[in-house]
Amino acid sequence: MLTEVRMPKLGMSMKKGRVQHWLVAEGDPVEKGQPLFELHTDKVNALVDAPASGVLGRVVAGDGAELPVGGLLALIGEAGDTFPTAAELGEVVAVRGAAVGRGDGVASRSSPAAPTPAPASAGDAPVSPAARRRARELGVDIALVPPREPGRRITTDDVEAYAAAAAAPAPAAAGRAIPFEGIRQVVAERLHESLQTMAQVTISREAEVTGLVARRARLSPGFEAATGIRLTYTDLLIQEVAALMGEHGLLNSALVDGSIVVSEQVHMGFAVALDDGLIVPVIRDAHTRSLGDIARERVDLAAKAQAGTLSLEEIEGGTFTISNLGAFGADTFTPIVNPPQCAILGTGRIVEKPTVVDGRVAVRPTMWLSLTFDHRLVDGAPAARFLQALAERLG
Questions:
Q1: Distance between CA atoms of 55 and 3, rounded to whole angstroms?
Q2: Sign (positive or negative) of CA dihedral 257, 263, 265, 267
Q3: DSSP 330-376
Q4: What is the pLDDT of residues 167-213, one digit of tens each?
Q5: What is the rounded CA–CA span in Å between residue 331 and residue 197?
């Protein structure tokens, strides 16, 4: 009996994953529950266990291969089983230098696979059998090969021309080339998707934050002495923003199946900058947590983020996000919403400025607050009221 190993779905937002490294070689025995391969997603790295015991008889997605959720990775069978070739499992393409099965793979878990028809070519033009064979030999996805003329049958000449063009070296670029991959590529894809799928609007205001500065100065010495943790403005902002979510629920909502769902919990995400991108760990139920709990969890999650050891539970399910760039000297910026959330708050550095107080000029600490929100769910007025309420709490 053959068992399929497919790309698992490790979280609600996961769409694809990359096989970092197979821990068992093709042809070696494997036990059910034994770590089979290391998987990299847009959020975490994880070890995936074998779904069955037997022999890892066919690997169709090698190290570095990137597939959508549900994509066929390998087959596990019993000693002496005959395993279908990668070509018999469907069309094969090169992904980051690794062969990846494109077909549906095994027809059932109890029967050998039947060959899967190749996908339709570009523009649904007919494909000659010889062209299909040549595409398999060259590792070309026949679905990407265009016919010489619209509606004309795709021939071996078309396949070879496409393969030659794909293999041609790209023009050398001046300067140092940095691979566009890993977290940086994932961040770019997610931010682009966010802007394409939401009607995002940003409103900003400068707020006097005398109360915020005074509170940190008052609490910080005793807090650090008692906990060993340096109290940050991010900790205080998380607590203050979480406390406001009950009165401004639409900012703590998401669009789900055509309905605006307002969350009763406040799971606060906070952006952590990494060398090659950023990640947003989540402090759950922040509206019910003490300042000490928030600070301790923020430190723990930030350390895991830097070490690359965050679990899926620690980065999924956020309902609102704060991105604080004050430590990097930024005044104001336009944050991008982290889907499927409705809003994100960007905060800048604290600067002392002359401010009119009761008709007189006085120097006060100020901070820019920038709120980006999905205008499909929230209008400008309620978003502005949230910023007003937050400014009052920080003043």
A1: 10
A2: positive
A3: ---------TTBSEEEEEEEEEEEEEEETTEEEEEEEEEEEEEEETT
A4: 766 666 678 888 777 667 777 888 888 999 999 999 999 999 999 99
A5: 28
The string of pLDDT tens digits covering residues 346-355 is: 999 999 999 8
Between CA 351 and CA 214 the distance in angstroms is 14
Are 119 and 126 spatial neighbours (Cβ–Cβ below 8 Å)? no
Which helix H or strand E contains 389, and what residues bound it? helix 380-394
Cα dihedral 379, 382, 385, 389 sign: negative
- Contact indicator for 38, 20 with CB cutoff of 8 Å: yes
Alpha-carbon distance of 102 to 79, in angstroms, equals 26
Tell how strand 200-208 and strand 92-95 pair up: unpaired
Asked about 293 being catalytic, the answer comes back as: no
37 closest CA partner among 14, 1, 10: 10
Q: What angle do CA 346, 347, 348 make, to 5 degrees?
A: 130
Q: Provide long-range contacts, Cβ within 8 A and 24+ apart, for 209-216.
A: 209/350, 209/365, 209/366, 209/367, 209/394, 209/395, 210/364, 210/365, 210/395, 211/393, 211/394, 211/395, 212/236, 212/237, 212/240, 212/350, 212/365, 212/367, 212/394, 213/350, 213/365
The whole-model pTM stands at: 0.67
Query: Which candidate in 63, 300, 331, 375 is catalytic?
Result: 375
375 is catalytic: yes
Tell how strand 277-279 and strand 282-283 pair up: unpaired
DSSP state of 214: H
Cα distances (Å, whole numbers) of residue 131 to 103, 115, 344: 17, 17, 51
Give 203's strand partners.
371
CA gap 360, 191 in Å, rounded: 44
Per this entry, what is the length of the chain? 395
